[in-house]
Structures are given as structure tokens and as C-alpha cells.
User: Fold these one by one.
Assistant:
Number 1:
Amino acid sequence: MSASDGASDAVSAGPAAAARPRNRKQLIVEAAGQVFSARGYHAASMEEIAAGVGISAAALYRHFPNKYALFAECADVMVDRLVAALDQAPPEASLHDVLAALTRVTVAHRAAGGLYRWEARYLAPVDRRRVRGKFGQVVDRVTEVVRREHPAPEDRLRAVAALGAIGSITMHHTSMGVRKIENLLVYAATRVAATDPAAAAGSAGLVELLAPPVPRTRRAEILAAAVPLFARDGFATVTNGQIAQAVGLAPSALYRHYPGKVDILVAACLQAAGLLGQAVERSLHRAGDPRDTVLALTAAYVAYSFEHNALTSVAEAELGGLPADVRRPLLLAQREHIAVWEQQLRAARPELDPRQARLLVHAGFGVVVEAGRALRWRDTVAHREAVTALVIGALL
């Protein structure tokens, strides 16, 4: 570090440079978690993170040698908060109290929590195992309480799904008072944990999904080959060479069909939006009263998520990396989809206001993601119906 670097830090920090806060490292981790969550690991920059703390990038490197070290620290710190919250709860704590403790931590750090949903795949294997081990401790504790208070099949799945309802708050921007958010999430998570996974038996019969077209053109083959790669490794790390190899083409041949890699991602997001829109339309057409409609919507969304898991994860994880002119219509379609759910849920539960309904809808989506992952997205009728039941527990 040169003298000029120190001077630039003092200038950027202004009068505060003379009294550097003792919690500077904590402030950096907080700011970094929000940037990683909002922009993704690869799109985030050390300069942007430093600006969020009010220091220079050079000063940031005094605390962390590189972006990855900061990223790994963020992942550790956030899961450590959840573990600490449970450590403070007495062994005899009720399910409500355990879930409330986890909810308070999650809501307090809402802006940074999205890092786990998709970005944790960029952790090195040893770091990923460590973070998963800590999450495993959280799941084990919640499962223990669920088993004690609600003895029924699939106690661990119900615990994971309840945590998914709570974690959903990190994936959207619905604005409410903090206490109201916490109360509603705890209510939803508690209901999920108490739900019999067999409660929605027969719901799979409500679903009739349209399958994506069979790849009959080279362009469609490229899209079909790229989506699993994007889902597994992340858009930023997949190369044109990998996509070309999966299709049996030379990398240069891709450009005859897509101008660039981002155009393949755009096509994937558009396909996901189209298939989901069709599933919603069919659900609304077949449903009866408002509660039946919510059940039909849920069954269709769960079936869609299992059947098109790779496509769904790509569309959700990579949307933020799309060019703004392409992202706007996709975000509009996403909002319209949420509005349909909100309208139908409020028809079934008139006591809910729009924001409450929206928050519960997102909680239901969180249940699908985490329960589906716990089931390794093995697409069976039993798995679809179990997850549908858990989502209905959160909503109705």
C-alpha cells in the first residue's frame, strides 16, 4: 500500500477517515452481501462494494485479498447468524419460537439473503461443504421441533419447506412493516411445518402442462443443450465452447444461430415465461371456486417447476444479467403472474390485503424451491402432490 493509496482513502472517506469505525469489516460484509445478492457474484465488483461502505477499493483490499475471499466470508457470516439464533433458543423452545428467531434474522438481513438461493454454487467445493454443513445444523434443529410438535411423515421435508417460506423474503421487494412481515412469515412457516404432505393427494390430476417443443432445428438444439449447463454452472462460467461441444458443433458455428451467449439466455427466459403463462391459463380455465383455483394454480406451478426445473432455475437466477431492454418485458410478465396469484388468493381469503397476499404467494414459491431441492427434483406424482400440499399450507 503506497502513501498515495492511503491519501485517496482519506479523501473518499472524508472526516470519518480520522476515526475509522471499528466495525469496518462488518460493514464491508454487509454491503458486499447486498451487492452479491442483487447483482450476482460475477457481475459484482469490488469498486461497487467499496462505494457502498464509503471507502476506496484499495482500502477494501486491506481487509480482503480478493472478491472471492469476501464472497466466501459473506456466505459464512449469514449462515452463522442463523446458527447463532438457534443456539440462543432453549432446547424446549416451541416451533413458533424457533421459526420466529430464524425469521427475525432473515428479515433483518433481507437484502443480502438472496446470495444463497443461486450464488452459493460459485463457492469452492470446500467452502460449499462447510456452508451446507451449517445449514444442515439449522435444518436438523427445526426438524427435531417439527417431529416433536407435529409427528407425521416427511418431518425433514416439512422443516425444509418451512425454511423456504421464511427465506422467500430475500427474493422480492414487497414492502410492509417489519413486524407484520415477521408475523406473516412465521404464520406461513408454522402452517407448512404442520401440514400433512398427503393432504393434496389427487392434485396432480388437475395439471395438464404443454411440453416445450421437441428440438427439430439447430437453434432449438443449442437452447436445449445450453439450459442444463447454465443451471448447473451458472451463465457467467459456461463458455460457447462448452455449449458447442454439447451440440456437436464448432464454437464459431453457434454464431450462425445466436449472435452471442446472452441471446441464448434471452431465449431460455422467454421460453420459461411462455410455458409458465400457458400453465396458468390452463389452471384458471379448469378451476371452480376461489379455493379450487388456488389449488389448481399451485398444482400447475409445482408441476411446471419439477418438469422444467433447469429452465426455471436459469430464468430466475440469471434474469438480472439480461440487457435492460429485454429484462423489462420479462419482469412485467413476472409481475402479471404474481398479480394473478394475488387476485385468486384474496378471493379465497378476503381478509388479506394485497401486500399480505403477495408476501404469502412468494412464501409459497419459496416452499417449492426448497422442497424441490430437498427432493432433488425427482419428478414423481407423489413428490408433486407433497409439495403442492405444503404450498397450500402456506397459502390457505
Number 2:
Amino acid sequence: MKANPGGQIDLNEIIGRDRVIEQLWETLEQQSIRINAERRIGKTTVIKKLCASPKAGWVPIFQDLEQYHSAMDFAQAVYREVDAYLSARKQSARRAKDFWKAIGGTEIKGVLKLPTFNDQTPWKTLLSKSIEDLVVSQHQQKERPLLLWDEVPLMLQSIAAREGQAAAMEVLDTLRALRQELGGQGLRMILTGSIGFHHVIDSLKQHGYANSPLNDLYAFELPVLEPNFARELAEKLIEGENIATSDAAMSAQTVAERADGFPFYIHHIVKAVKLSGQEATAEVIDKLVSKQMLDSNDPWELTHYRDRISTYYGAGSEAAVLALLDSIAVRDDTTAVNTILHELKGQGLTVDREELLKLLKAVEQDHYLAKDEQGYQFRFPLLKRWWRLSRGL
């Protein structure tokens, strides 16, 4: 097995996700899912594996939605995917095609010529009828459709920016209505994204959105690799790259620990050791990790954790978020809320206790922090280490 940081991982080389995938299938028996996880943990890899090796009786369809920027873009993409799937099985997306023809579309020798669209074109009808076609056809075959949609929040943000907040609200409400109406016939969805759904919902609520469009979805927390699987991945990569080591188990253990169980960082560390031409000792691994964390080219893309703060929390809260993260990063132990509040006020930041609690909750949801009965600490030691280095703490 070769190190492939950031590249497409061979689905046959996925390590340590069998139990997670089994848990997803078990959950899907009852309800649809939204996957919560930090970036680079492997959300997309997991759902692609789910799609490639479905349980008997399930029909998964995967789509990356980041490229769609309007509600009609989304509806057409779903229609095309459903129609292609049904056509391959010699079935027809009858409801959707009837709708196309009703609004001016034509079909010549089996090829559908789409009409010209405008702002009044009912995308919601196209989306609904396409999914209804899929559900009905699979129900007749005693199969259950599973829509695997990646980067949903990014699509919703694009729709809100281009067509307004109301359009994004309508997409969310339509999807929830479809899950409610067709769930009894087997329809399930898995929604994932590299930014938190809560940011999209909070933004919509600031514009008067009162619904809870995701409360029917099970919030599945995708964890990092368990320590034994992180070591296994590191061992296989070290062996596959023919890296010199006098103690392969120790080298793999060090890599796994420094990477916090993130497959992406395990691949990066092993690649760095390979390129260095050095033996994989604990000292070498530590030095290379520090070097990559300080590299101005940011090979690990860690500056994303700093850059996204203004986008996620707004200019008004940016200084407070930075200050609270700094306060927690400099301590080895858990930091109490009152301690954080005292330090923020000492810096002249006008944040009261209630505002701080809201910020801490949001930062926790974004996987910077973990909470226990005594207070807060960084969820991932790797992120804490980088935060200290990058902030000069």
C-alpha cells in the first residue's frame, strides 16, 4: 500500500471502517442520516464504500452536490441520475418525463430534449417526481433506494447566495417532505458536508426560517480511526513504501499517535518520511510533523481551521473565538468557562457569559473543542499543537 495524501483511496484499501459502515446500514433500517465529522476524517470515502458494496435489497446512488448552485441545477442533476439508473435497468422515469413534456420538453428516439428554463420553472416538481419514480420502481422490485449526497451544506450556501435564503429554505423543506412521504416505501438519504449543517440552518434562521428540516435525520458522528486501525494503516504504508525502520511497530504507533487517527495525516506523515530518505524513528517522525505544520505551503491544509472562523462566526465574533481558542490552547488541562470569560474580558472583549456559552457550543460543534464536566479542551491534540505553533503561543 502506497501513501496517497489527498488522493482518491482505493476502496479495497480502506482500513478500520467496517464497523462504522455496519452501523450506518443498521441505522438506515429506521431512518435517514446526516454525517457529522471534521474534514479529512474520510466521510466521502466511507459513503463511497457504502455505495460500492451495498447490503442486499438496497440501491445506493452517490452524488457530489458541491458543483450545483441553484435549486434547478440540483433538481436536474437528481433527475439525470435517476433517469440514467432506471434506463440502465430498462425502467422509465415516467412521472418526471411526463412533467418535462408538460412544460415543453421533447423526447426523440429516447433522448430527452430539455426545455428552456426560467425563474418560474417548478424545480420542486421535477425533483419530487424524479425521486418518486425511483422509489416506486424500486418498491416494485422490493428494493430500497438510498440517496448518498455529499457536500450538501456547500450547495445550500450557493443556492442562498445566488437565489436568496428563501430558495435554500425551500430545498430543505422539500427534502424533508420527501423523506416523510416516501420513507415508508423505503426511501433513505445520507447527507454529508465539509462544513457544519448548523451554520447553514443558523444563517437561514437569521432570515426568519423557523422550521427544523433536519430533525428527522439521525446525527451520526464519524470518528477518527481507532488506535489499532490507525497503527495498521501506518504499518501497511511504511511497509508499502519500503521505509527503513528498526522497530516497525514503534514507527507505526508514533505515526498513528501524531496523526490523531486521521487517515489523511497518516498518509502525509508516511509520505514525508519516505521523501526524507531517513529511518522512521520517533525523533524523525516528530521533526517532520513539526516541519510540515510550520511549512508556509501548508501541505496539511491546517490554515483552514483559522481562515474559516471569520466565515463561520462573522467579523463580530472572530476576535472572541480566536481569544477563547488561544486561552484553551496554552493550557495542558481542561479550561473552565469562568477562566475563559475572565481572560476575554481582560483583553477588552465585550462578551457576556451567555454569549460565550453560545460561542463555545458552536466551536464545539465545529470540532475544535471537546467538553467535559470541568470545561473545555481541544478535541484533537494535533490541532492543538498546530494552533500553538501557528499562533505563537
Number 3:
Amino acid sequence: MKTPLKGLKVLDLSTLLPGPYASMLLADLGADILRVESASRHDLVRGMPPQIDGQSAAFGYLNRSKQSLALNLKHPEAVKVISELVGEYDILIEQFRPGVMTRLGLDYETLRQVNPQLIYCSITGYGQTGPYRDRAGHDINYLALSGAASHMGRKSQGPAPMGLQVADVAAGSHPAVISILAAVIGRQSSGEGCYLDIAMADNTLALQALMVPAALNGGKDPEPEGNFLNGAGVYDYYRTADDRYISVGSLEPQFRQRLAQAMNIQDNPPLEERQFKTLLQQKFIHRDLNSWCEQLAALDICVEPVLTVSEAAQHPQFIARQMIVTRDNGERQLGSALGFERQPIRSAPRCGEQAEQIMIQLGYSPGEIETLRESGLFD
């Protein structure tokens, strides 16, 4: 099963990260993805450094194996074009604020009249309902409002910004893909499509699977360095002599016992958690990271170095898993982390690269396409 989603056709009207990441996952599984984007308001990711052949490395990753149709959605003809596409591309992903697609005449209720089997997925920060529905937001805001940020970081410093977008991807892209594929399965028996309202704030709240249920049922609100996962105990990062860090996840008794033996710490009977952690800090700070790795790497104790991204890309584990792919043009790109056999990666499209091809497939003549171009439809 090399391309399990072959035959699925998706219109992606999103930009930046959550929607494009979701449609990239679908593309990696064989779905046919058509980006519908503006030529006058470029996707900001496209311009990020570094650039490869005029587009950013990040854009090349997020939009690989897709096609692009540039459309001015405010143009009178745009509704007709999208409606015609919906007859064939029966899954739509959009990421505008609530109400925008309605004003454009491209909302679910309108398009489902064209195709009752349409699966329409809206990804927003706060969802289509509630007092925050029209509020702007970013990943850091969803982490904050959902309570996730309240138990990150250190007591003395408070929450720290994260270098990866947990809310955008884990609470936006992934639930969108899960919901879309569930809707596809449901459509096979019902013959009907549906509307999907994915709110990144909702899903960030839901990601806190161990801490939120406890707080809702009589437990204390989690705090920084207040539980076994966020620094209260041994499970933490430790500074080494060369100002690098090593991670210790030795929660289970057998792992802790082996770690104590390797670090020459007397832990029988078990020391109080804070005391054991202090002894680990004192041990780790006296030698550099490589030295500790050489000593501990062969032990099965849940201890790993904190690598830079470049170091991770060269690690034997990720090389063996073929997670770094070098394309014919020399571009190094992340491989698919999904469980299916990987397919060849096609380059991300230029803005509107397939416009004429798509319009011809919809039945427009070259003359009509040129007239529409002159009228600003593809701006």
C-alpha cells in the first residue's frame, strides 16, 4: 500500500503552518493537493530564509508534492471556479477567520449545495463559536489560554517560548487530518460530507491528558517544577561541563537503579527525589557531554544527549530511518515520518504554477483564461 490516499483530492486554501502541514501529511500519503493561493498576498513562509530556487526551505517542505492555482477570491469569477473545483476536489481545508469564507460566498453551506459529499475543514485559533471566535492568535497564545504554558518552564523564570509550534501542528494539523480521514470513512457509508470545526486552543487543552483530568477532579493545578514530568523530580535536563545538556527520563525503578549505579550514587534505600536529582546535577556538571555519552550510551536507562538540529540530522538513528532525504537538486529535506513506504518527493509549486492547466481541465478555453487573467482573477 504505497499510496493509501490515492484518489483523494483536496483543495487547500490555507497558508503559513497548520493547514499546509495538514495537507502535506495527506500529500505524503498519496492525496492530490491543490493549493489555492493569492498571487498578491504571498504566503509569508515562502519568503523565509534560507531560499532554495527562489522559495524557502520551509515552504519547500510544507508544500511538496502539491499543485498551485493563484486566485483572487474577491474576484466575481472566483466563486464559480471554486464551485467547479469542489465538484472534483471534494475535501476543502481553509484557515481564514470565522465569517471570511461566508463573505466570499465560499462557506460550507453554499458549497455543499454544489457537492453534498464535500468534507469542509476549518482550522482556526479559537473555533467558529464562543466569545473568542474573531480573536487573532498565535501558537503562544493558545498554549497560554489553554493552561499549558502555566506548568512549563522553571518556577523562578516562568514559562519559556517553545521553538516548535505545538498548538499549530499537534493541536491543529494533526486533529484536522484525523478528522478529515474519519469523515472520509463516514462518507463511504453515508454518502454525505460534513463540516469540521478544528480549534487549536481546544486541542491544546485536550493535549494535556495527564494533568487536566486531575485538576478537574479535585487535584491541584499543575505548576512549573510541580510534577514528575515538568522538573519536580529526576525527569529533567542536566547541564554538563561544556554547557551542553543531557536528558534523563529514568522514571521506572529499573532505569533509576541502573542510572544510580552508572553515576556511582548510593540509592538503596531510594533517596528522596530532590536529593537524588541534586546529586545527578553535581555529577553531570563535572564532565562534558561527549564523555557522558560514551559512558552511558550503551546502558538502557532512558538517558540521551540534547542535540542541535544539525546534530540530530546526522544521528545514526535518523539516518537509518531515512528521515533526511537529499533531492536531485541538492536540497536536504525531512522525510515522511508516517508509517507507509515513502514516495518520491515533488518540488513545491511556484505560486499559480498549474493555473492554466487547472483552468483548461475545468473547460476554460485559452482565450477565456487570458481574458480572466487580464481581469485580475489570478492576482
Number 4:
Amino acid sequence: MDRRNFFKLMSLAGLAAVSPTVFAGRRPGAFKNPNLPPLAETYGGPLWVFLNAGGGWDPTSLCDPKGGKGPEDPEAMNHAFTTDQIEAAGNIRYPNIGTEENPTAYQTFFQKHYKRLRVINGLDMQSNGHDSGSRHCWSGRLAEGYPSLAALIAAVHGHALPMSYLSFGGYDDTQGQVARTRSGNTGALARIAYPDRANPEDEASLFHSSVAGDLIRKAQEARKERLLATEQLPRVQNAVGNMYASRTGSNELKKLQQYLPAELDNGPNPLRRQIQVALAAFRAGITISINLDIGGFDTHGDHDANHIPRLVNILDGLDFLWTEADMQGIGDNFVVLCGSDFGRTPGYNDTNGKDHWAITSLMMMGKGIKGDKVIGGSDERHNAVNWDPGTLKQSDSGIHIEPRHLHANLRGLAGIDGHELMKQYPIAIEKGDAMNLLA
């Protein structure tokens, strides 16, 4: 069967939940055995969560706090708080602010989670463009052509899983190395899992009688076997299996439905619903890495009123993730990274907004990451400063911390730095410039 006819057959078969990039995988041996056991038996973790603050967040209003002398201070970095409102939880500094609905949001989060939190401040994105900044943050490379770290982890550790990489948005380029699932609609997932039901929640609402259903399944299985008999390439055979899984209902998706809560959170914070799906996918053993995404941070006007509530949503989402994960018994096997395209300018523009700024921060939590730690920093106007790579102490002869330094460390933490796939996507760090940002 040639490539064109194969894709045509897939389209006719209704393949919607399996990304077409699964057929473009270039890693040798990636699909040799499509019948490997589930994640719990093949991968010990950790499970990876990447939370993207889309639009460019303002770390000077979060984990690299810089206030002002008062509301009339013309040089104030932020009007939402003064310098005497900056507090500390352990070694982590934060402004003691919140929203009208949750005035102690920052204090509650940082006091509760500082022992598991590591902050990288003064991170130089070398760009103030949305696409390039987001790509740099999540792939470790400013230029195009690299998959996200989440995709690389899924490609190495989860290639046997049909939903190893689940994304709600943000930079999720795979470069064809792994299938990506981009569906946060749990209703759609339910219909894919139970295509033979008029109502996915009702076991009795079948389109066909049991006799007709058996005949249909036998015919589908026979056709699949005929297709498999004509193909020799393991990755094409795996693709055929995925095609029929999407047509007949996937056992993995059925497991996901079983782990989802009876009612998803319908509150104002969209991260909570994404997190509920993520935890269900992790517990079902069908997902290794996931992108969470929340936008609205590109606040060129009325910065404080628009930006701070979204930062509160991030803190609420992170707290919700850890609380739920701990309750479900999987909280000790996560790595969570929270970052953004870039930062916001020091001070305000003529519309009380803040524009794009290349210097930002990143927050990390979870397995293998020592908490209550701040690495790097910025000066009083949020300019990056130089750090000695070996000692991580401020030094005029040092260098800026960049995403590549962090990604080199994270690849090691994920256990993928020695994999042959990394030769295709190397992290360029000159001798003597390597930084251990996880020590």
C-alpha cells in the first residue's frame, strides 16, 4: 500500500485522536513493539507537567518581586505593591498580594509550597517575540527545528503509549518524534472511547444490537489483519493498529474515562479542568508528559488589573495539582515546570500596561528537584546579571543564565541525555559554560 492510499484509508476510518506525526517518527526502533505493557510496568517516572503562561508573564509581580515606594512613585516597577509588602517563605521572596476574591493568594501558596519550589530568576530568553520566546523556553533552543522537552521525554519513555504526550496548548512541536494528543474536551474523549454508544455515559445506548456489533467487530478485525499482512515496516503496522483503535474505541481512552472525576471543575480557573484530565491520564498509565496552558498575559494595557488575577490562577492551579495528586497517591512522582515566553518591561507604558522584556523567571517543583532555592537574579530594573557557571555566584566575568543551561540539566533529570535521539537535537553549551541548576 503506498503512502497516499494509506493516509486516505486512515481518513475514511475516522482517525482523529491519533496525531499524523506518528507516521513520521525517525527514531530507529521507536515502534518495534506496539504491544508493550502500560506505563506502570515500563516507566518508573517521574511524570512531567509543563505549565505555560502564554503571552509573557511578569515575574517582578511573582517570584522576582520588585515593588515601589508608593502609588505616586514614578520609578515604581509595580504599582500593585510596595517594597515593604515583599515577604519570604524560606528563601523564596514574593509580594504579599492577591485578588479581591482571594487577597492572600500569594502568601497562602508560597508558605504552603516553598519547600518543594525552586526558582530560576534573571533567565535571559534572548527574545521578546512570542513564538521565539515560547520555543526557547520549552525546547531550549531559540531557532526553529527542535521539539519541546515534553515531546522528547514522551518519545524516549512513552513511545508505546497512544497518548504519551497530551497538550492543551503552548509550544508542543514534536518534529515527528512522537504522537501528540491535543484534546482537552472530555466529551470528545468519551465519544472516542465509546464510539458504539449514542450516549457515552449510558452502557445500554448502543447503535447496534449485540449480534450486529459482534459481526462489525469481526469484520473490522479481519480487515485489520489483512492490512497488517501486507505491511512489513513496524511503524506502519503500529499506525494501522492505532487507526483501528480510533475506529473501534481505545482501551486506553476507556481507562481515562474511568479515572476522570464524576464532575469536572467548572469554576473560573481553566487550569483546574486541564489538571483533572492530566491526573486521570497519568493514573490510567497512558500519558507521560503533558502541556497545561493558560493565556492572557500579554497585558500591554491596564497591567495590574489584568495580569495579577491570571498569576493567581497559576498559583491556584499549582496548588490544586499538588493537592489532588497527593490525595490520589501520585504526588511523589511528578516534575512540574512553570514558565512563559518572556517577561514584562520595568515600569509602565502610557496605558498603564507593560510591554515585552527578554528577562524572565521559571519555577520548578517535584521529584529530583530540591526546593526552597532561588538561583540567579536580576537588578533593580529587571536586567539580567552575570553568574559564574561553576559557583553560581554573581560575577562580572560570568554569563547570563539561558534556557539551554536549564534544558541540559532537565534532560539529565529525565534520563534522556544519553539517548541517541539527543544527538539529533543537541544542546549547545561551550566547555566551561555548563551550569548545574538542579544541585
